[in-house]
TrEMBL record:
<feature type="domain" description="Fe2OG dioxygenase">
    <location>
        <begin position="214"/>
        <end position="308"/>
    </location>
</feature>
<keyword id="KW-0223">Dioxygenase</keyword>
<dbReference type="InterPro" id="IPR006620">
    <property type="entry name" value="Pro_4_hyd_alph"/>
</dbReference>
<keyword id="KW-0847">Vitamin C</keyword>
<dbReference type="GO" id="GO:0005506">
    <property type="term" value="F:iron ion binding"/>
</dbReference>
<dbReference type="GO" id="GO:0016705">
    <property type="term" value="F:oxidoreductase activity, acting on paired donors, with incorporation or reduction of molecular oxygen"/>
</dbReference>
<keyword id="KW-0408">Iron</keyword>
<dbReference type="GO" id="GO:0031418">
    <property type="term" value="F:L-ascorbic acid binding"/>
</dbReference>
<dbReference type="GO" id="GO:0051213">
    <property type="term" value="F:dioxygenase activity"/>
</dbReference>
<dbReference type="InterPro" id="IPR005123">
    <property type="entry name" value="Oxoglu/Fe-dep_dioxygenase_dom"/>
</dbReference>
<keyword id="KW-0479">Metal-binding</keyword>
<keyword id="KW-0560">Oxidoreductase</keyword>
<protein>
    <submittedName>
        <fullName>2-oxoglutarate and iron-dependent oxygenase domain-containing protein 2</fullName>
    </submittedName>
</protein>
<dbReference type="Pfam" id="PF25238">
    <property type="entry name" value="OGFOD2-like"/>
</dbReference>
Amino acid sequence: MTNKEDGSRPFYICNCFTTDNIFLEDYKVHVRFSSERQFRLDYQPLLRRLGCVTEQQFEDVRNKISQEVDRRRCLSETSAERAIAIKDKYQPLHPHVYHLQESFLAPKFKQIVEYCRSSNVSEEGLRDMLEEEAAAKVYRFPVFEKGFCEELVEELEHFEQSSAPKGRPNTMNHYGILLNELGFDEGFLTPLRELYLHPLTSLLYPDCGGRCLDSHKAFVVKYDMNEDLDLSYHYDNAEVTLNVSLGKDFTGGNLYFGDMRQVPLSEMECSEVEHRVTEGLLHRGQHMHGALPIASGQRWNLIVWTRASQERNKLCPMCNRRPTLVQGEGFADGFTDHSDSPLNTSCVMT
């Protein structure tokens, strides 16, 4: 299996993908399911405290988990089938937005990237150009021009209203679009990661794989008064995440950040961060965060999970174990078969 995005080495998923980090929406908790016995022992007391009291309620939970496990086992195949169907059936409204152009980018972002490429660059100088939030190592900066954000949202709405097949981004977001299936990887997202994000992450997150990003997963999520309103507390399957607010008109919906996922919840204090249209928030993927409910309107966000196989090959960020590799499509979950390095937990608390 090769990476069909650029014809280079193959990428893989970790075998834990089918069993770990399954989100139970009714109880706002992530669980692991390897067997019914394991699940009952690990989670039945917790679920009872959260309101899952009767045996029928527990059976309903188990059935939902079984459906999610089956979906994940078939995901690579069904995603590839959707991408083929979309390419065959869907006619884009704005074809030019699928290919990254300098004119799409905010002047301040281009200035920041140019500084990162200069010979006199320093981490301190870069930080002076960014807006650092109260949460540690969370940075804000303008990413796109307003006109591009409007056109991209129009394109996404056009696709959403089409008859083309669609897959949800993850178990936590019901409404959104997987951008690799829509055809954004090769012409837009890979150049964005390689040419524009990598210079920043190399300086800001060298201890978390920021210098060796080699894949990504990108999607958009939509929040609406009649659909998803918020996003529960979680961490990302990424080394570094870029979250850009694309629009449209909304109030509320600020993000909040706690600490790295290794810190006990009882010891975390959260900082609220306003999300402004056209601006991006850059943060470590293992930094716990969530989104407060929107109060009105509709919001679209572009999420780019950037990944470094050099880091995740040592320790899977989702199960915290040495990854057991399973073949995947495209960039899969960013693992490669070069996994003979010693464990490295350098990104835990820095």
